[in-house]
Amino acid sequence: MNQPKLINRRRLPRIEVSLAVEVKAECGLVFNAMTKNISQIGLLFVTDRPTFKQLTMNQRLAAISQPAEVDIKITLPMENGALAEVFTHCRIFQLRRVSSDSYHIGLEYI
User: Fold this and answer.
1) How far is the CA of 44 from the CAs of 4, 11, 66, 91, in angstroms?
2) DSSP-derived secondary structure letter, 4
């Protein structure tokens, strides 16, 4: 039986990868999470319900013209076993509940 081919309609491909990320929100909240995927223009990370509620308390329905922003630090493993840290500023563009205690937050690099 032939499986249908999935068409990726995204501008840039995403890589499914689990990387440690530290997130610092404008409200001062700092927490650690793991990425679900990453691309050249952004990333998606997974968080739990309490963290999601704290992060989105004042920005749940942020206007598209003024999306909430966060600072992130991504820890990347290097070939020699060392770790590299990448710091960047992002805007939140996606908030999605995937189960009772799991949420996806999509970020776009600024």
Assistant:
1) 25, 15, 19, 12
2) P
pLDDT tens track for 39-51: 999 999 999 999 8
Cα distance between residue 77 and residue 13, in whole Å: 21
- Angstrom distance (rounded) from CA 61 to CA 54: 14
Distance CA 20, CA 33 (A): 6
Structure tokens at 77: 């493993």
pLDDT in tens, 55-106: 877 555 445 556 789 999 999 989 999 999 999 999 998 889 999 999 999 9
Q: Where are the alpha helices (DSSP H) in the chain?
A: 49-56
Judge contact between 93 and 67, C-beta under 8 A.
yes
Which single residue is written with the structure tokens 């949420």? 103
Total-model pTM: 0.79
